Amino acid sequence: MRNQLLFLRNGKVVTGLAILGFFTLLAVLGPWLSPYDPNQVSDALLSPPSATHWLGTDHTGRDILSQIIVGARGVLVVGLVAGVSATVVGVLVGVTAGFVGGVGDESLSALSNMFLVIPQLPLIILIAAQLPSAGGLTVALVIGATGWAWGARVLRAQTLSLRKRDFVEAARANGERTWRLVLAEVLPNLTAVIASGFVGTVTFAVLSQVTLSFIGITPVSEWNWGTILFWAQNNLALQRGAWWWFVPAGACIALLGMALTLVNFGIDEIVNPRLRSTGLHARSLRRRGIRPRVGFTPVVREVRS
Amino acid sequence: MSAGVETDPGVARDAGPTAEDPVLEIRNLSVDYGFGDDPTHVLRDVSLTLRRGEVLGLAGESGCGKSTLAYAATRLLPPPGLITGGEVWLTGRDGERADLLSLSDAELRAARWRDIAIVFQGAMSSLNPVFRIEKQIVDGILAHRPRMRREEARERAAELLRLVGISADRLRSYPHQLSGGMRQRVMIAMALALEPQVLIMDEPTTALDVVMQRQILEQVMELRERLGFSVVFITHDVSLLVEVADRIAVMYAGEIVETAAARDVYTRPRHPYSAGLLGSFPPLHGPRRELTGIPGAPPDLSAREPGCPFAPRCPHAMDVCRTELPVLGRTAQGEDGRLVACHLHTAGAPLPEEVGR
Amino acid sequence: MSFLLRRIAFYVLTAWAAITINFFIPRLLPGDPVTALLGRMQGRIDSNAEHALRVLFGLDQDATLWQQYLDYWGLLLRGDLGLSFTHFPTPVSEIVNQSLPWTVGLVGVATVIAFVVGSLIGTFLGWRRGTWADGLLPVATFFQAVPYFWLGLITIAVLSVNLGWFPSSGSYDRGLVPAFTGEFIGSVVYYGFLPALTVVLSSVAGWVLGMRNMMVTVSSEDYVTVAHAKGLAERQVMLGYAARNAVLPQVSSFALSLGFVVGGTLIMEMVFSYQGIGYTLYQAVSTHDYPLMQGCFLVITLSVLVANMVADLAYALLDPRTRTEDR
Ligand SMILES: Nc1ncnc2c1ncn2[C@@H]1O[C@H](COP(=O)(O)OP(=O)(O)O)[C@@H](O)[C@H]1O
Ligand code: SF4
Ligand SMILES: [Mg+2]
């Protein structure tokens, strides 16, 4: 309970969640919100932002704002599906490895380390390029299948340390079934780590998917922010100085990624209290003349009430 | 040995250097945790004097603020620790007195290790795992003697190891290659590198087994005789202190509640908390006592109640205890050289037998 | 030593796994892109090369899976990765050989620079926590969240298209003949500067944040407090004690994140049309040149494994605990 309150009091988390909420809204309501059909060509070829086209148009006169709004769904759905599938695999592998120990642990750890070391993006490209049709969902599943290893690694370490804690040992001594033990005692204590892994995977998935779309592996007719950049790159938006074509889409990706990172910072601060900076606001510290330093405790002789 | 020496009972609150030959005088030290609007006041006006050549024991349960006191006095308390008041006067070898809390960074750096060295709680983590023992000792020496040759410093390090009974070829070892007891000895050797006047030892033996504890204690006491430094010895184990300390200060909830000669605390405690503490540990020597312990746990310092912090656990708590904070003062018996902070001693009523022997 | 032996065993295993994945992908995935192409090449491709392609892509269905697997290994051990479709009939291994040095030069140098610079900045940020330096954190967070290739697009737009300071594509002046001359090397550095800068910009933030967090954690370790208690100079405590230890997890995560970082930086080659392995992979993807794609993946993976091993070696040198038997 306390942790949850702490979580929501954290400014970073609130900012992150607010941005995520905004994009979720776009993803759900996109087709109704967008001013034009993103595929609808017009006479306004490659025109800069104006009152009719807030973010300008592309080389065939399609409205870029509409592409971005409609594209939000593609990005979020892939992120979510990939995040969920990778997290499920990560939890299964990580918790099992941490809990069974011995040879099982060794081999599962080796497996996840392998998946970490093998460069994922080239692997995803290789798989996606050989699939007859690599639509958003397929790509999401491929990302999930290759991106679970980091979460598994962290979860294994946490499970290992949990396993040695008193309450788990006690439950085990009481003859609790293993799966009950895992469900009732271990998993609840891993929530923060699982959440952090999930958010991390979503970030990775979004970046990967956008990258794949950018290099033209996913169908270019499926709108997402990477597709916009694909069109921009292939139609020399850079050389033509059409900044409105590639800046907003990239900014949206960056904003979404930042929101996810902020949420993860909040989670990290819960897991590792040393990172918590409660009261460490530079301005208020300066006002009180405190310079927080390791090795030289600040001395502040204030008049006490 | 200054145990039992008659002193002015007003020492701790007096402003001047009154106690005979003090090396370290902590005056009204206050410490908070938290830089924000609602900090935890951990230490409140703590005063303590260490005399030259003396072993001063600091006792109290875990969480009473002993480590905080030691770290704050040397300004080593990590964030979010904040010193909100007080002075820490250190008398240098030349007799000059300086307030550690007002020194500049450079001056404080120079005084550290040279005048005042610390052996921290947990020798396991006090040594840097990636450096050889040699480098860690030599670094400390060279920081203060920049003109010394590395070779010389290395010889000094070897000498120090021998001093604590470790063969000099261990200099080339990494911390993880040493046993817990050896690591603690290395820390002690390292602390003595510059022949400091004050050695603060924070639970130096808590993690060790009883045999190792004894060995190390005896060694430190012997070195003290030989090198003549003063010691602040921190532990939660009062019966251990009785063996090694000249005087004992008992801490509870961030305050000193009793100071007296070690023997006096042991045989005639004046504060109910001291009495309770003595009942929690078996004596190392002498007749066995029944272990009673103190019910309950030390209070959460972030939510202090008014009155005596020990009141919820005290068998003799009175009404006044729940409203007024007792201050350190003379005992009801008017004994010299000891102070206690308990309303029993000012109430005028006869003392319970536990604290009135 | 057992640490290094264990690691080497792990890498051998991983290399085997990567090669095996490469063997199975075309066999497991639906669709058969190669047969059609082989049909089109009929007559222009000699039987040896055709056989190699059949082995690589699992079209030799008459052999058992095990036999296919052995054949596949046989090809790899001879360095035969098949023929490229687009650059027909150049062998894949030749194309890969030509592009790999460019990647090692660009991505390798830039990644190492990013690691060093990022760790230094992170050291400083972690040490100065609660001061104005914290203001740099949001900036780092932003750079970490930006997709690599987009940053590449922006730098091109600003530094190349608008200001005209750097060329926007290529890896050296096409008017020059590759040779070890000052002029040619200068041209390589000039052309490589922008892509390298983008790789550094986009990957540095991760190292900054990682190191900063490690510094915060390590700063409250007892041995750092002891270093202060010894009266060591601030610089010595910060670099010699705190950063020296904080960099350890940083190096091991360097090893683990190489795969990720390299993936991202390869895309950068695509943006800059830089003739490295990433660009080659891109071309292979856009021209459906499957043998080349497979070869690129294999070479990228093996290179990352080698880089990993180097990082592990560095770790072993930095942490004495890995050098003695487990304790
Ligand atoms: N970072 C912190 N924030 C808030 N309170 C703290 C912090 N560190 C220690 N404390 C509190 O300070 C008190 C004194 O701790 P400490 O000095 O370590 O006690 P001791 O050494 O006697 O066991 C404890 O009650 C503890 O809860
Ligand atoms: S002041 Fe009261 S509560 Fe506190 S120790 Fe004395 S008698 Fe007990
Ligand atoms: Mg302590």
UniProtKB/TrEMBL annotation, chain A:
Gene3D superfamilies tied to this protein: MetI-like (1.10.3720.10)
Protein name: Peptide ABC transporter permease
Residues spanning the membrane: 12-33, 75-99, 111-131, 137-155, 190-217, 243-267
Any Pfam family matching the protein: OppC_N
Entry keyword annotation includes Transmembrane helix: yes
GO cellular component terms, semicolon-separated: plasma membrane
Membrane topology type: Multi-pass membrane protein
Family of the protein in this entry: Belongs to the binding-protein-dependent transport system permease family.
UniProt KW keywords: Cell membrane, Membrane, Transmembrane, Transmembrane helix, Transport
GO MF term list: dipeptide transmembrane transporter activity
Domain named ABC transmembrane type-1: residues: 76-264
Location in the cell: Cell membrane
From TrEMBL, chain B:
Gene Ontology molecular-function annotations: ATP binding; ATP hydrolysis activity
Keywords: ATP-binding, Cell membrane, Membrane, Nucleotide-binding, Transport
GO cellular component, one term: plasma membrane
Gene Ontology BP annotations: peptide transport
Superkingdom of the source species: Bacteria
Coiled coil: none
Localisation: Cell membrane
Topology versus the membrane: Peripheral membrane protein
Keyword Secreted: no
Claim: Nucleotide-binding is one of the keywords in the record: yes
Domain ABC transporter: 26-278
Pfam hit, one: oligo_HPY
Principal location class: membrane
Protein family per UniProt: Belongs to the ABC transporter superfamily.
Record-linked PANTHER family: DIPEPTIDE TRANSPORT ATP-BINDING PROTEIN DPPD (PTHR43297:SF2), OLIGOPEPTIDE TRANSPORT ATP-BINDING PROTEIN APPD (PTHR43297)
Protein name: Dipeptide/oligopeptide/nickel ABC transporter ATP-binding protein
Native source species: Promicromonospora citrea
UniProtKB/TrEMBL annotation, chain C:
Keywords: Membrane, Transmembrane, Transmembrane helix, Transport
Location of the protein in the cell: Cell membrane; Membrane
A GO biological process held by the record: transmembrane transport
Predominant place of localization: membrane
Sequence intervals crossing the membrane: 7-25, 102-127, 148-168, 188-209, 254-277, 297-318
CC terms in the record's Gene Ontology section: plasma membrane
SUPFAM superfamilies: MetI-like
Membrane-topology annotation of the record: Multi-pass membrane protein
ABC transmembrane type-1 domain segment(s): 100-311
Family: Belongs to the binding-protein-dependent transport system permease family.
Protein name: Peptide ABC transporter permease
